[in-house]
């Protein structure tokens, strides 16, 4: 990759809108489409698009092409380039540290239950700001979305779902949350028991802290089925 020219970078980030877009991408755990950025910042996609192209031209952003957009064309998703300035956000050493910590945990023979216990503590901490949320399901989906899991809510009993029943909790208060994306995918492939255990504990702790629901049927990479969890009202 070519070395960034500092003056070009400073000029590109000198615009308030471009700087806001850059920060949004830097904080995201996954590449974002133009429409995602526009919706978050309250801008029109046509306003965002030239700013993205400007930052890509100077090497601040990289483009991932895949999937289909609203008009059937391949969708472009943008992410911060590896050589872009960090602006005080996550340093590139953080993923390296995560790998080393997981390797150490494996060497110390930590189990998936040990990982779940650690995840449980973090899940409870993350749940507390949602104390006034309308429901545990809404709060959990919102938090998983912030973490980059792209959660999709479906009926827990699709075979009995009526034609007019919208996606969401079933009549018994159960709903399946499927994870369309895993921000921990690379680490999970190397350490599935530990990483998936952390994720399981994170969700179980979150739901238990909210107090009005339970989790079951947590499926992960090790289950050889799509990653998902069922949340049921108590």
From TrEMBL:
<dbReference type="InterPro" id="IPR011991">
    <property type="entry name" value="ArsR-like_HTH"/>
</dbReference>
<feature type="domain" description="HTH arsR-type">
    <location>
        <begin position="1"/>
        <end position="94"/>
    </location>
</feature>
<dbReference type="InterPro" id="IPR036388">
    <property type="entry name" value="WH-like_DNA-bd_sf"/>
</dbReference>
<dbReference type="InterPro" id="IPR036390">
    <property type="entry name" value="WH_DNA-bd_sf"/>
</dbReference>
<dbReference type="GO" id="GO:0003700">
    <property type="term" value="F:DNA-binding transcription factor activity"/>
</dbReference>
<dbReference type="InterPro" id="IPR001845">
    <property type="entry name" value="HTH_ArsR_DNA-bd_dom"/>
</dbReference>
<dbReference type="Pfam" id="PF12840">
    <property type="entry name" value="HTH_20"/>
</dbReference>
<protein>
    <submittedName>
        <fullName>Putative ArsR family transcriptional regulator</fullName>
    </submittedName>
</protein>
């Amino acid at each position: 990759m070519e070395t960034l020219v500092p003056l070009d970078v400073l000029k590109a980030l000198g615009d308030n809108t471009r700087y806001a877009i850059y920060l949004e991408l830097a904080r995201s755990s996954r590449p974002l489409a133009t429409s995602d950025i526009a919706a978050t910042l309250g801008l029109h996609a046509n306003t965002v698009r030239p700013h993205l192209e400007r930052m890509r031209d100077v090497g601040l952003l990289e483009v991932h092409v895949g999937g289909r957009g609203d008009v059937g064309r391949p969708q472009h998703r943008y992410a911060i380039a590896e050589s872009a300035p960090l602006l005080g956000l996550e340093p590139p050493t953080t993923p390296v540290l995560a790998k080393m910590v997981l390797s150490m945990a494996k060497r110390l023979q930590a189990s998936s239950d040990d990982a779940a216990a650690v995840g449980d503590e973090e899940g409870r901490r993350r749940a507390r700001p949602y104390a006034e949320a309308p429901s545990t399901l809404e709060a959990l989906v919102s938090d998983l979305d912030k973490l980059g899991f792209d959660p999709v809510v479906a009926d827990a009993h699709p075979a009995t779902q009526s034609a007019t029943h919208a996606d969401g909790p079933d009549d018994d208060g159960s709903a399946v949350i499927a994870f369309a994306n895993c921000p921990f995918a690379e680490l999970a492939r190397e350490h599935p028991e530990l990483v998936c255990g952390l994720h399981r504990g994170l969700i179980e702790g979150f739901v238990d802290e909210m107090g009005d629901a339970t989790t079951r049927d947590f499926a992960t990479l090790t289950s050889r089925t799509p990653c998902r969890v069922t949340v049921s009202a108590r």
